[in-house]
């Protein structure tokens, strides 16, 4: 089978197209139609992600495709349309995944959309519903709102009865955030003052921050009483620090969102999440927006685009 390997820690250019043996039957074997591209894969090309196996290895944490074979009692059978979160190995024509990380794909969704679900939608569900305790009627500020996490956060918040103010760096990304359901879409420059105006001086209840960097302090300042900032990632490259007196004033909270660490230590949690989000997916309330599709062989270009923060919607690799 064709696959993509990280052969050195030299960035996205280190990806190579290789031929590898197909996985042996035993778990759920999936003929991959699409693979999602995530920021951790960019970090893996530089050896800077917490999950970084010995070189060379096949990256790719999320896929969608058709089941080729499945063990008895798994709940899956040959021919089922699924998406899955194998964690590694997804940048390939065939992948093997434990049944606990495989999910039935709604008929209304394309494979490219299916490959956009596991990392983004399940992270956002954990962030907003579990860690953030989002309530109907609250206001959510979403950074990086034109990317995969940002779109998923916007859609999930709106589906939960919240108002969303989206922050995105270009007109194109802001238009996408509005399409995803945001009530307002604003530029990063001076966002704190705009948020104050949009909320009548009250501030927001939750900030979703997958970006980090120098906007973190103003994000805390944008919170209202008992507001929560959800720390999801650092696509800006800089890990910010918090002066805790800013949390004391206004009874604010900075909350870590370590989805992977949580589900790996809580067996069965992923399936609980799927039971919660599947009705929203089937109803179109969670509707991943695919921005650009690259053939599998152009994985380097796909990761370079993400590294350059050029993603508008979800980036997907197609294999079939």
* Low-pLDDT residue spans: none
Mean pLDDT: 94
Spatial gap, N to C terminus: 12 Å
Q: What Rg do the Cα atoms give?
A: 19 Å
The global form is globular
Strand content: 15-25%
Topology, number of strands? 15
Category by helix and strand content = alpha/beta
How much helical structure, as a percent, in the residues? 25-40%
Largest sheet: 7 strands, mixed
Order of helices and strands: EEEHEEEEHHEHEHEHEHEHEHHEHE
What count of helical segments does DSSP give?
Answer: 11
Q: How would you characterize the overall build of this protein?
A:
There is one protein chain. The chain is of the alpha/beta class. The chain is 29% helix and 25% strand. The chain contains 11 helices and 15 strands. The chain has helices at 39-44, 111-114, 118-131, 148-159, 171-179, 191-198, 216-221, 245-248, 259-264, 269-282, 299-307, and strands spanning 2-6, 15-19, 28-36, 63-69, 81-84, 94-97, 102-104, 139-142, 163-167, 184-186, 204-209, 223-231, 253-256, 290-295, 314-318. The strands form 3 sheets. Strands 3, 4, 5, 6, 7, 14 and 15 form a 7-stranded mixed β-sheet that branches. Strands 10-9-8-11-12-13 form a 6-stranded parallel β-sheet, with helices on both faces. Helix 3 (118-131) packs across helix 4. The two termini are 12 Å apart.
């Amino acid at each position: 089978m064709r696959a993509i390997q990280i052969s050195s820690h030299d960035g996205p250019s280190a990806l190579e197209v290789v031929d590898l043996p197909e996985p042996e039957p035993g778990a759920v074997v999936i003929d991959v139609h699409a693979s999602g591209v995530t920021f951790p894969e960019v970090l893996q090309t530089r050896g800077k992600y917490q999950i970084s196996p010995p070189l060379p290895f096949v990256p790719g944490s999320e896929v969608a495709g058709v089941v080729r074979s499945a063990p008895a009692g798994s709940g899956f059978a040959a021919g089922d349309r699924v998406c899955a979160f194998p964690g590694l190995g997804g940048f390939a024509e065939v992948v093997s995944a434990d049944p606990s990380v495989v999910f039935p794909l709604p008929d209304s969704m394309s494979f490219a959309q299916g490959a956009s679900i596991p990392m983004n939608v399940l992270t956002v569900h954990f962030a907003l519903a579990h860690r953030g305790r989002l309530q109907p009627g609250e206001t959510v500020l979403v950074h990086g709102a034109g990317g995969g996490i940002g779109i998923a956060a916007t859609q999930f918040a709106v589906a939960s009865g919240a108002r969303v103010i989206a922050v995105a760096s270009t007109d194109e990304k802001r238009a996408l955030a509005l399409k995803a359901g945001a009530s307002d879409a604003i530029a990063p420059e001076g966002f704190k003052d705009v948020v104050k105006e949009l909320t009548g001086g009250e501030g927001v209840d939750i900030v979703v921050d997958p970006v980090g960097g120098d906007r973190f302090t103003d994000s805390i300042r944008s919170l209202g009483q008992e507001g929560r900032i959800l720390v999801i990632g650092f696509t800006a490259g800089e890990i910010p620090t918090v002066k805790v007196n800013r949390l004391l004033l206004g009874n604010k909270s900075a909350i870590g969102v370590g989805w992977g660490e949580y589900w790996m230590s809580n067996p069965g949690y992923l399936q609980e999440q799927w039971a919660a989000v599947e009705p929203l997916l089937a109803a179109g309330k969670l509707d991943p927006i695919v921005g650009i599709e690259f053939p599998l062989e152009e994985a380097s270009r796909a990761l370079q685009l993400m590294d350059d923060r050029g993603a508008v919607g979800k980036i997907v690799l197609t294999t079939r």
